[in-house]
Amino acid sequence: MGLSALTISEASTLLDKGEITSVELSQACLNEIEAARELNAFSWFDPDLVMEQAKSADKLLSNGNTSSLCGIPIGIKDLFCVRGSPTQAASKILEGFRPEYESTVTQKLKDAGSVFMGKLNMDEFAMGSSTEHTVYNPVISPWRSKGSEKPLTAGGSSGGSAAAVAADLCLGALGTDTGGSIRQPAAFAGVVGLKPTYGRCSRWGIVAFASSLDQAGPFARSVEDIALLLEVIAGYDPKDSTSYKGEVPKYSNYLTGDVRGKKIGIPKEYRLDGMPGEIEEIWEEGKIILKDAGATIVDISLPHTEFALPTYYVIAPAEASSNLARYDGVRYGYRAALDSNTNIVDMYKRTRGEGFGAEVKRRVMIGTYVLSQGFYEAYYLRAQKIRTLIKKDFEDVFNDGVDAILTPTTPSPAFALGEISDDDPIKMYLNDVFTVTVNLAGLPGISVPARLDSKGLPLGLQLIGRPWEEGDLMNLAQSIESNVQFNHKPQRWW
Amino acid sequence: MDTKLREPESKIIVGTKDNWEMVIGLEVHAQVVSNAKLFSSSSTTFGTSPNSNVDFVDAAMPGMLPVLNEFCVEQAIKTGLGLKAEINTYSVFDRKNYFYPDLPQGYQISQLYHPLVGEGEVFIELEPGVVRRVRIEHIHLEQDAGKSLHDIHPSFSYVDLNRTGIALMEIVSHPDLRSPEEAAAYILKLRQIMRYLGTCDGNMQNGNLRADVNVSVRPQGSDELYTRCEIKNMNSTRFIQQAIDFEANRQVGIWEDGGTVLQETRLYDPGTGKTRSMRSKEEAHDYRYFPCPDLLPLEIEPEWIERIRDNIPELPDELKDRLIRQYGVSNYDADVLVSEKENAEFFEQVVINRNGKLAANWVINELFGSLNKEGLTIKESPISPEQLGSILDLIENGEISGKIAKNLFEIIWSEGGDPLKIVDERQMRQVSDTGSIESIIREVLAENPSQVEKYKKNPKLAGFFVGQVMKKTAGKANPKLVNEILEKILAEI
After folding, report:
1. CATH number at residue A184
2. Do B63 and A203 touch (CB under 8 A)?
């Protein structure tokens, strides 16, 4: 096993002991990235920049830096502004854009001494569930169905992050989750992914998709690594008015393995007609694992669940239609080639028409429609009311003493590239059915690998926690993790 | 204000069929006095080179987020309290979406559904005792837009974002105004109050006080509201009055011809004196307002409002009432004195232990007159309140005459110095010694025997001797004493 396959905590121990250097570790990752170009996981990387950072990390380590992320190679979703590096949100409209500022969360990673490996591919502006809607080539999952060479999706929108961690191209990665964009790809790629409570991590410097739903979070190969990453990236930021002022606990201290007395809710509304039997099975296994570990399993109801998807697909596009208005060709990014007597409206139309992909345009149009005069009350306002009800569903359950909710992460394993994207967009949206409620309610959610299905593809379990209690949530997730012993790696074909 | 006051007459347009009343409401955009912008820390300094007061938030770079400048909120609350308005402890910022190159975000952050300030009122006095109450509908905070420059290059337009994101208060009135003069007086009154509060400089030339004017007409006696037109972006009270007059007459013409006034946005062209259509209701933007998800609802502690209320200075209406009551100055003089806070402050320093009417007279006629002539502000006055006060004391004590006092004022204006010393050094005091006045009178009588003879036939000619006495004393003889003594001596003749 190469160095790049280490977990963050393993690598950190070796770095601290001086048994390996960050230069060695980062070089190992670079070699893997080079070898895995076919996956399209990274949209941009610069080996010189990586080595420069690794050398400074080694210096810090030799001076006794004890940050668990010092010298650790981390990949960053292309949605995060990284000073001086291309930041395009996988969109043509941000062609050539290199921010002169650094997002708060990536700055925190840099301050901790981690090594920024490069930008990770994604669905354009984080809109999608397959990382096919990208100005770069689609991400190809390192996983394949047994006996098949058909390229599969790594999920989306943070498909590059999930694939990179699954294929050992880096030790951890940052993604964002607006409706499931961390948890669904984590499930498809057999890695751990956490969406923190809304407000836990600053949104400053992250290209906005839907401001009231967007939240940054980590990908890693173990729950412990997720805790180490969250400890660093979380925290109040005066530059983000919606960020949470509360203290960031030392999450690794929560990972006691003791889940006795915890009450785990099983929502009946998440049992869908026509859901594959294997999804049912892992759900059942998850219950048994937690029950055997001393938790209580209770049936619960989240009655407004069925309205979550339509609610999400009103609110998210509404916010997106406004958030994306700034991409107008006036100040930065792509501008359509125009002759001199073109008027301003033509410039907008052509720049945005050429700069945005089909899925982004679809959502901008939906969003514009639902906010329009005469439709606002019927769509946007009603969606906000339902959102309140969905939030209340969770509050009621937590008030009844439930500590966390267990569900499958996705209603199916990874699908083939082109299989859904060429079809009805609603089918693609259905991928988010188990994850969007969490964003609408602003709650933390984590996906942990459960097992492989009969075709050899990973399936994930989702745990949903109380607001701000990511520590307890990760402890429960680790309980599942240590029980299922998911040690599978994709068969290397690239 | 006194309830016995009466309302002004509406301005009536006499048509061929009807008498028409003007109905006017204003949306005033007042730039908040603040060093930093509403949602960014960029400077608000006027007149700097293009795009020098712009940060990543103002330029709407990807991933940038607005952070509310609380001082601007405080200023808006202060303004609301100054206009006797309700402060809403819960308000929300909304996005108003439209595309324009000088609007980098593609939306303006404003407050549509839950504004910060609710119902208030302003009183405007058009002449003594004639007062209009104008109800404020609400005040909200919003971002200003940048500026598009179309005259720099023949084929390109340029954008200056210095103004982008500067805090504005939009003060929306009910349609309570009934003449162009009232509209102008209303804006000037708002300006005056905000300048007292220090919340808006009210510099209309720099565009930090602008108004959208809503005009409609209706048959006299009707209380129905007819269709209105909005005249956009006016920054001169003179043009506002001209625009209202033109627009109201235009609408009367349409109604009387059997037509229908269409709701639309219009622009006033000062060159032609006419308004022209900018866009109709059908062409109006759909702004797709919705709550800005980057900002939390604004929740205001009542204690904060009270702390701000405690720091509200005395405002022009109260100050005017007090000047009249406390110093006995006339209604007109009080208006002049309160027009600017600094003027009234100067007056109050002068008037201490002195005659109010005399002090008002001198401050307004001599001081303001001289300042105006030389284009100086009250702060630049070469004469201090103490100096002016000394001059007034000399008048009151009969030590100098009004005429000498004016000379003294001019000396101090140009040379400075202590009025008492100057009066002594230059022997400007009135001669009030009866003995010396009597001997001068006798001298004059002796020198002018023929005039004495004429006087005997016509006693109305006594004035001649007074004139001669004043001439001999270079105007310093106390005129009252001269008259008394002269009368006595002439009676003896």
Report:
1. 3.90.1300.10
2. yes
pLDDT band at residue B474 under the 50/70/90 scheme? confident
Summarised one tens digit per residue, pLDDT across range A311-370 is 999 999 999 999 999 999 999 999 999 887 788 999 999 999 999 999 999 999 999 999
Q: What is the pLDDT of residues A376-412, one digit of tens each?
A: 999 999 999 999 999 999 999 999 999 999 999 999 9
Chain B touched by A95 (CB under 8 Å): no
Residue A102's closest chain B neighbor by CA? B63
**Contact between chains at A241 and B286 (C-beta distance less than 8 A):** no
Q: Domain range holding A300?
A: 1-494
What is the count of structural domains for chain A? Answer: 1
pLDDT digits (tens, 9 = 90+) for A141-174: 999 999 999 999 999 999 999 999 999 999 999 9
Query: pTM for the whole thing?
Result: 0.92
Give dist(CA A252, CA A471) in Å, integer: 8
What single-letter amino acid sits at B133? Answer: R
Maximum Cα–Cα distance across chain B: 102
Q: Do A205 and B63 touch (CB under 8 A)?
A: yes
Chain B (31-50) residues lying within 8 Å, Cβ to Cβ, of chain A: none
CA-nearest residue to A125 within chain B is: B62
Cα separations in angstroms, A335 against A356, B4, B214, B313, B316? 11, 66, 39, 52, 54
Q: Which long-range contacts (CB under 8 A, 24 or more apart) does B92-95 make?
A: B92/B291, B92/B292, B92/B297, B92/B298, B93/B68, B93/B141, B93/B291, B93/B292, B93/B295, B93/B298, B94/B289, B94/B290, B94/B291, B94/B292, B95/A322, B95/B288, B95/B289, B95/B290, B95/B291, B95/B292
Flag whether the ipTM exceeds 0.90. Answer: yes
| Cβ(A207)–Cβ(A125) below 8 Å | yes
Taking contacts as CB-CB distances below 8 angstroms, the residues of chain A near B66 are 241
